[in-house]
Design brief:
Elements: H1 3-13, H2 38-48, E1 52-56, H3 59-71, E2 76-78, H4 96-99, E3 104-108, E4 111-113, E5 118-122, H5 123-126, H6 131-134, E6 137-143, E7 147-148, H7 151-157, H8 160-163, E8 166-169, E9 174-176, E10 182-184, E11 191-197
Parallel strand pairs: 1-11, 2-3, 3-6, 4-7, 6-11
Antiparallel strand pairs: 4-5, 5-8, 9-10
Length: about 200
């Protein structure tokens, strides 16, 4: 018997017995962490990881900030119809090197999670997959009614297969080395501003 055959025979003898596939875990949203005030919890966590959060009564406050940025001559990409004219020269085919000069990008979030301050942004809202990760400043808009306590509740609201592509975004880009030196904006937006719209 060759060494190859000896090895295969040993593997066959020591093959573990088959176990049934475990059942798919069901999401138990009732047993997951809950917050009495999701806006307060979301804001606390978001600020602790470097984001700026504004709770506003309506989209008017966000629109004013957008208009101010335009008046200052900043290169702005707006994907939110409720706050101004949609930027028409940006689409899914726009190459990343044309987006790297974007100063501020305004994008709608689908659902926000209080436990980790993550906001789900779908490809439909970001328009171009690179936009939220390559702009200098990212502005995310989330309605208060779309804030949930935990990730279980967030996933129950999402249809990932319909979105095609999306990402949970929490805080500005950051990285840290073994010496515990934290760098903000190392490989993505230098800052993240979140508007929680109370009365959309």
């Amino acid at each position: 018997m060759s060494s190859r055959e000896q090895i295969l025979a040993a593997v066959k003898i020591n093959k573990p017995t088959e176990e049934p596939t475990p059942p798919v875990m069901q999401l138990h949203t009732d047993s997951a962490i809950q917050y009495d005030n999701v806006v307060e919890q979301f804001t606390t966590v978001a600020q602790s990881i470097g984001a700026t959060v504004h709770a506003v009564e309506s989209m008017a406050a966000v629109k004013l900030q957008l208009e101010t940025a335009l008046q200052e001559g900043k290169q702005v990409v707006n994907t939110v119809a409720d706050i101004g004219t949609i930027t028409s020269n940006i689409d899914i085919h726009t190459p990343a090197h044309k987006l790297e000069a974007v100063d501020i990008a305004y994008i709608n979030g689908t659902v926000g999670v209080a436990e980790n301050a993550a906001i789900w942004v779908s490809e439909q809202h970001m328009v171009n997959r690179a936009l939220p990760f390559i702009c200098k400043q990212l502005v995310l808009i989330i309605k208060q009614k779309n804030l949930v306590s935990n990730m279980h509740q967030a996933y129950s609201r999402l249809n990932v297969s319909a979105d095609g592509f999306g990402a949970f975004i929490a805080g500005p880009s950051k990285t840290a080395d073994i010496e515990q030196s934290l760098v903000i904006g190392a490989h993505g937006p230098l800052g993240l501003t979140i508007y929680i719209v109370i009365n959309p």
